[in-house]
Design brief:
alpha/beta, TIM Barrel, 8-stranded parallel β-barrel, two-stranded antiparallel ribbon, 12 strands, globular
């Protein structure tokens, strides 16, 4: 799957992933009211609003980008109807030719980790049938429970040809409380990065591994160091735009050929219609604003090469 992602990045000339992290506050009032008229102010109504919003955004940007990254929590908060829309969003994105990175941040051990891996990236057996559940192409995973939480994902990646992005250094302000702790003379996240590099050797594509990593855009010096520690891992970079990451801060994450990283923007794209820079599109053309924001982001990132 990593080879397919890289091919799409090259074709689109866009090392960009759009985060589909909808909240009701980001969805225009007309979209919500239409959903509420059909389903009422219910969990089903909220889920329908998310679905209609997602569909319009995906239709507007799918020809520009290689991948999307739906954040499962934004759907799970609406219970079963929300989870159904999460799955429907994955299916729709696949139908539009997009690679899907499930931002699920799963992390557990033993049979529980194996169940997460099977449900998101692999298959499950039901009687005589072998079925897929969510069927994302990649999933984000939390390594801080150790190797036995990651090993089931590696096994499924080898079987299914899919991939994972392992959290190494996240972009949230308090990440340093644990991730930056000095451990044997180095920050903890470097030890995690070394494990990721070892795991990466086990699931190689042509030039890069199906075991990628997550390193926030707000830490360029750390990014430079981690790029060298994990030379075969693609870096998923959150934090561009809304969290303060800039194009200039992203250069260390990439290799000289312009590959090696893919940059995420969520609110900066799907909430573009609320930004002054895209105010001319208005609330009704929120999808057009998202497309303009994607085009601007691609141009901004490509200028650093």
């Amino acid at each position: 799957m990593i080879d397919q992602l890289i091919q799409k990045i090259k074709e689109k000339q866009a090392p960009v992933v759009v985060g589909l992290d909808p909240t009701l506050a980001l969805i225009p009032e007309a979209v919500k009211q239409e959903a509420y008229r059909e389903y009422g102010e219910t969990l089903e109504g909220a889920a329908e609003a998310l679905w209609q919003f997602n569909k319009a955004i995906v239709d507007a940007v799918c020809d520009l980008i290689p991948a999307v990254k739906p954040q499962s929590a934004m759907y799970e908060q609406f219970g079963a109807p929300g989870v159904a829309v999460y799955q429907k969003t994955i299916e729709y994105c696949h139908s539009r030719g997009l690679i899907v990175i499930g931002d699920v941040k799963r992390g557990d051990i033993g049979s529980t980790s194996a169940a997460y891996a099977s449900g998101h990236l692999g298959t499950v057996r039901v009687g005589s049938k072998v079925l897929t559940a969510f069927d994302e192409d990649f999933a984000t995973v939390n390594p801080y429970l150790g190797s036995d939480g990651i090993r089931p994902f590696l096994d499924v990646c080898r079987e299914s040809g899919k991939g994972i992005f392992v959290l190494v250094k996240t972009s949230n302000p308090s990440s340093g409380e644990f991730q930056d702790r000095d451990t044997e003379g180095r920050p903890l996240y470097e030890h995690v990065a070394e494990k990721v590099a070892a795991w990466a050797d086990e699931v190689m594509g042509k030039d890069y591994s199906s075991v990628g990593c997550v390193v926030g855009a707000t830490y360029p010096e750390m990014g430079k160091r981690l790029r060298s520690v994990m030379p075969k891992s693609y870096i998923l970079v959150p934090g561009y735009g809304a969290q303060g990451g800039t194009a200039e801060s992203l250069r260390p994450y990439f290799n000289d050929d312009g590959l090696g990283a893919i940059v995420n923007s969520s609110r900066g794209i799907i909430g573009a219609w609320k930004q002054e820079a895209y105010a001319a599109y208005g609330e009704a053309d929120y999808a057009g604003a998202a497309r303009a924001a994607v085009s601007a982001m691609i141009a901004d990132i490509n200028r650093i090469f």
